[in-house]
Every structure is written in structure tokens, then in C-alpha cells.
Write a structure and sequence with these properties.
- This protein is α/β, with parallel strands linked by helices.
- It has two domains: 6-120, no CATH class; 139-305, Anticodon-binding domain (Rossmann fold), CATH 3.40.50.
- It has helices at residues 6-17, 25-39, 44-51, 79-84, 93-98, 104-120, 191-202, 227-231, 248-252, 278-286, 292-296, and strands at 53-59, 66-72, 139-140, 152-158, 182-185, 214-218, 242-246, 258-262, 270-273, 304-305.
Amino acid sequence: MHMSTSRTRERLIEVLTGLHKFGSDAKATAAFREAFADYGSGAPDSVASASQISVATRKDPINGVPIRGLRLRSRSWLLRDVVWTLESCPIPSEVRKDFPGITREEWAAVGRVISMVISLFTEVDALAVPVPLAPAPRSRRRSNRSRPARRGSASSSGGGKQARANPKRNTMKKLPEAESPFVIRTDFSNQGAWDEICAIIRQPVGEEDFLADVEFVDDAAYANASKKQLLKLFPEDSFHSFCIIADQKAMSQPEHPLLIIDVLEKPGREFRAMPSTIQSIENNLSTSNMDFEDFAGEVSKDGVFRGFSDA
């Protein structure tokens, strides 16, 4: 049963009509997901739907001005552009079944109204604050070990492949704002190992070619950073529940066991995991489909998560 209140409805409207007021796409995304889930009374389908949507700033292809709007988080498509196609789509068989006699003109009207409503929350002529244009994400469907979840993409930030440690750096900059959980490189002794780790995480897995939705941070500013130091570098309003560290142990051992750290519920608790399991870990932790301990409790005797047993 729908149990939304005037307060939750007003909050969702406030967020949707004020996307341009947020200081970043990540902050706008967090506000939208919270408001949408609240308006849907926290129902699982509402939460799952909200997790599929994010806020992105793009350059309008017509007039070149920045616009901020809702998009499918694993794609570069704004919802406005997706729903515009409804007007020209054939009437789905389920619609014909539930609404006998609906005409092509009536269906086109439905599509036009929906697209115009969505456009109300997208077409911003002048942003209230300057916001950098977000890169279009590379997207494929993401992985999951055994439970249904959302889809995503992998991106990167920082110095790139040629980053090298700077031993003279005594202070560390804050981690960047990002919509996706971080994979942070702290060891720069083996470029080949890092490239291999990234390639494995980016690899689609499973029958449906799921892909992890993570933000790679390859920046020598974080060279040799400890877990304690990294926990202090997250933005104050970060909503991520965990991060992934490619440290000296991950770089030097053949299996590249990555360090998974809880940064929200019980900051500092940890376990290690094979790069090939990051798709499942990210997919489930990001959507709260599973808990941190669900994975930490399945590690082998050496403390490394290699997947769930079939027993």
C-alpha cells in the first residue's frame, strides 16, 4: 500500500525542482534517492528503482548550455531522452490488454505528457552553481553472485597509469566526490599488477555479463596511505558504505587479494577479496542487498573471500 505523506511528496518535489541547487551530481543523487525512497514508503521496489537512477550534468546538444537531470546510472542517457521515444513506440501488448481500445493518438499523448513532465526536472537554462560536466559512463550490466541487483559501470580518476609515488608528500588530499565506491591504489611498485587488477574488475561476469560499478583512484597522492588515513579522507557527506584498497599485499601476491574496508557501519573492519569477486561484493553492498559480514564471514582460512561455497 502506498503510504506517502504530504511531507515526503513535498520533499521529492523540492529535490526534483532544485537539482541545480546541489553542489555536485553526487549530492543531488543522494538527495533524490533518499526522497524517492521515502515517498515510496521505503518499499523494496522503490529503493531498487532509486538505485538505478542518478543525477548527471551534461552539455545540451542543441544550445550547448549545461543541464542537470536524472539519468540511468549505468548509462549516459538522460531519462528525458529515454521517455521521448514513448511517443513513437508501438503500443505494448500489455497496455492494449489492460486498456482495450486505446488508440495510437492516445498512446502518443501519454508519451508526450510523461516526457514533458520529466523535462521539467531536466532543462535548466542556467545552473545556480558551477558544476563540472560529468563524463558519460562506460556501461555494461553488473555482476551478482546469486541475488538480483542493479547494473553499473566502472570509471577512473587520478593520475592514470603513469602515476608514481611522491615520498615528499606529507599531507593527503580528500578523496574526490564520486557516485560509485572507490578502488584506491596505495602501492605504486608494480604497474602491471595494477593493470591486471583493473582489468579483472572491469570484466563482465556471469551469464548476464554483469559489471562492477566502481571509481578507480590511481593517484600517487595516496601512496602508502594507511587504512586509518584513508578513512579520514572521505568527504563528510559521503554515502558509500565501503571502499576497496589495492595495497602492497594486493600488488605483490599472485592472487592480488584486495582489502575491503567498511567506512560507514563499523569503520575499519575489513576482509580481503579476489579481484574477480568485486562485481558481487560491490553489487550487493551498494544496494544493501547483503551486509558486510555476509562476505567477511565467508573468507577462507587465509582471510580472503573467493566466492560463496555451494554448500
